[in-house]
Amino acid sequence: MAAQPELEHPKKAFGWAARDTSGLLSPFNFSRRETGEKDVAFKVLFCGICHSDLHMVKNEWGNTIYPIVPGHEVAGIVTEVGSKVQKFKVGDKVGVGCLVDSCRKCQSCADDLENYCPSLTLTYGSKHPDGTITHGGYSDSMVADESFVISIPDNLPLDVAAPLLCAGITVYSPLKYYGLDKPGLKIGVVGLGGLGHLAVKFAKALGATVTVISTSPNKKTEAIEHLGADSFLISRDQEQLQAATGTLDGIIDTVSAIHPLLPLISLLKSHGKLVLVGAPEKPLELPVFPLILGRKLLGGSMIGGLKETQEMIDFAAKHGIKPDIEVIPIDYVNTALERVLKADVKYRFVIDIGNTLKASS
Ligand SMILES: [Zn+2]
Ligand SMILES: [Zn+2]
After folding, report:
1. From its phi and psi, is residue 320 left (phi > 0), alpha (psi between -120 and 50) or beta?
2. Is residue 310 part of a domain?
3. What is the pLDDT of residues 34-80, one digit of tens each?
4. φ, ψ (nearest 5 deg) of residue 295
5. How far is ligand 1, taken at its centre, from the CA of residue 52, in Å?
6. Looking at the CA of 54, which ligand is closest?
7. Its Gene Ontology molecular function terms (predicted)?
8. For residue 137, which of 72, 85, 56 has the smallest C-alpha distance?
9. Residue 163: which of 48, 55, 75, 70 has the closest Cα?
10. Distance, CA 359 to ligand 2 centroid (Å)?
11. Are 3 and 133 in contact (CB under 8 A)?
12. Residue 246 domain flag
């Protein structure tokens, strides 16, 4: 899509943006709206790098508006609140995840499922109802309606809180919605990246016995000794799969590459649920017989509503769930995105915006 002129806003902001499909980011001056009466403005201190940032900066989903300032795992400190803001005050620790607005009229919005609102406004690269293009957290400041701002508990550091706002809620919401949150259940997690490693931690904290399912045998030690999984299955090892047939109550599948579903469906008990949260670019082959034979369910899930995101953050704080992060300076961001592409990160990059983003850089 062609570059669009920036609508003039009164407040100067500074960040890093991609300007074309090369996806390379560089310093970028822009502007943000004045803090409205229900708005919370905050200084961004940390922003996580999500795999979708990579797709968006390169226009791989075909809907990118350049220049684009990515970042939807944004955490910082409140600097200003509007006159009608009730939940926040200056100095509070806050965050913004994948969305900054929604229609507030549809059934999804009424049900606290703003993430499924057909007119939701994404945190970056999305057209806001006021006509402006939203810019994300690879920048010095954010402004959002308080209904879309998450309160970060004191015992949760902002750098580890940031990735929870997308990666965390993406795996927490399906565990809750699909009833995979009961103690004693046997839960599988497919893929051990940013999403998968958090799925292991949340499922464990919810009382599940967790099996990591991966193509890489060398992740076994990491999964069990470091992340606390109970067992490990190599997804291409027929003997191991055979032995584990019909043992899992649910599976959170975080893989976004094309992969076979049959082995996963076979691992489920009768009435087991396979939930996809990764988004492969092409359709997957769906074997129907094994679903029918065990009354099994295949489902999907996308991030979560604001109420549930707050619940997830509070749960993470209470149970000491923290993503494993690699904190980087902003001028490392292009290298970091390349490494995300190669899955060369344990398990999430978080940009230290507060200390490294300088208007002169
Ligand atoms: Zn994300
Ligand atoms: Zn709505």
Report:
1. left
2. no
3. 999 999 999 999 999 999 999 999 999 899 999 999 999 999 999 99
4. 50, 45
5. 5
6. 1
7. mannitol dehydrogenase activity; zinc ion binding
8. 72
9. 48
10. 36
11. no
12. yes
Q: What are phi and psi of 217, to 5 degrees?
A: -60, -30
Residue 99 domain flag: yes
Q: How many domains does the chain have?
A: 2
- Residue pair 306/114 in contact (Cβ under 8 Å)? The answer is yes
Band the pLDDT of 6: cuts 50, 70, 90.
low
Point out the ligand nearest to the CA of residue 162.
1
Q: How far is the CA of 138 from the centre of ligand 2 (A)?
A: 27
Same domain for 333 and 237: no
- Mark whether 90 and 204 lie in a shared domain: no
Q: Give the ligand at the shortest distance from the Cα of 55.
A: 1
pTM for this model (two decimals): 0.95
Cα(9) to centroid of ligand 1, in Å?
A: 26
- State the distance from the centre of ligand 2 to the C-alpha of 304, rounded, in angstroms: 13
Between the CA of 309 and the centroid of ligand 1 the distance, in Å, is 13
The two three-digit tokens of residue 207, written as one number: 């009382």
The overall average pLDDT reported for the chain is 95
| CATH number of the domain bearing residue 117 | 3.90.180.10
Range(s) of the domain holding residue 31: 11-166+323-356
User: Which contiguous run of DSSP H or E holds residue 249?
Assistant: strand 248-253
**Residue 129 Cα to ligand 1 middle (Å):** 22
